[in-house]
Design brief:
This protein has 318 residues and is an alpha+beta fold. The chain contains eleven helices and 15 strands. It folds into two domains: 178 residues, Alpha-Beta Complex (Phosphoribosyl-aminoimidazole Synthetase, Chain A, domain 2), CATH 3.90.650.10; 116 residues, PurM-like, N-terminal domain (60s Ribosomal Protein L30, Chain: A, 2-Layer Sandwich). It is 33% helix and 29% strand. It has a seven-stranded mixed beta sheet with strand order 9-12-6-13-10-14-15, with helices on both faces. Strands 1-2-5-3-4 form a five-stranded mixed beta sheet. A three-stranded mixed beta sheet has the order 7-8-11, with no helix packed on it. β1 and β2 form a beta hairpin.
Amino acid sequence: MNALAGLVERLRASRGFHHKSDISQVLARLPASADLANVAIGDDCAAIPDGDGFLLFAIEGLVSDFVRTMPWFAGYSGVMVNVSDIYAMGGRPLAVVDALWSGNTEDAGAVLAGMAAASAAYGVPIVGGHSNVRSDGAQLAVAILGRARKLLTSFDARPGDALVMAVDLRGRFEEPYPFWNASVGAPEGRARADFELLPALAEDGLCDAAKDISMAGALGTALMLLECSKAGARIDLDALPRPADVDFERWLTAFPSFGFVLSVRPDHVDEVLARFSSRSLASAVIGEVDASCDVVVTRGAESALLWNLSEEPFICAR
């Protein structure tokens, strides 16, 4: 087995990949989505047609060990990742609600303080929720409402598109977790203004398909996007934007506070990259979408099959 094949095996066995592949077991037990929804299950948000746009709904749950050990940052993240989901769909967030379980008011207060800080950083009000401070465990879920004029979806990547990764490298890992934090401590207004690039790309007709980088890292996120679009790709790992002083394999599993994989028509690539650059965000073409169901990764002279989506669904979006 060459080095790249070994790396692929470790990624496939990672916690982030397993969290996403578990979705298939959930979807198999759900009824077909209602005609009300504009996009199929598998996207970052539910999208409901509403006048000249779409209402966007999303929810994120935080793993209990994270809430216990880093309550403030868990609260911050609960808002931040929902905001990212809305922007990934080409929308803008309107409001969030939360459901919080904690063993005492002190721990709950730390979570709520983190949520309040993220609410201020992203300009998104917390308008209600549910709380229990006499629970035997720590749990947090945050739901969000947003609105889009024009959608970015996971279902519109086309063969011939460039796969683009955009990420804010001005951060650090929140040890010992894979969360790359470029949001907390950023200059006031920067994080929200960076996110505004996404709906602008949609509304200006520069991009149709995008997904925010989640617990499965950049490659797992690309897999979800490609599966939803019934496509494959060849991805050059050497092209991924990354910090100079971070372990390469760890970076592949990173969950960044600002990170997206986009599928961009070739004639729009230069403008899309220029817009990210204008905000001092790193971006690069990392591969090309093709009509196969194979997602192949390369590094140097080596190549390896990451996933065959025709034989093994990732999140069962097909």
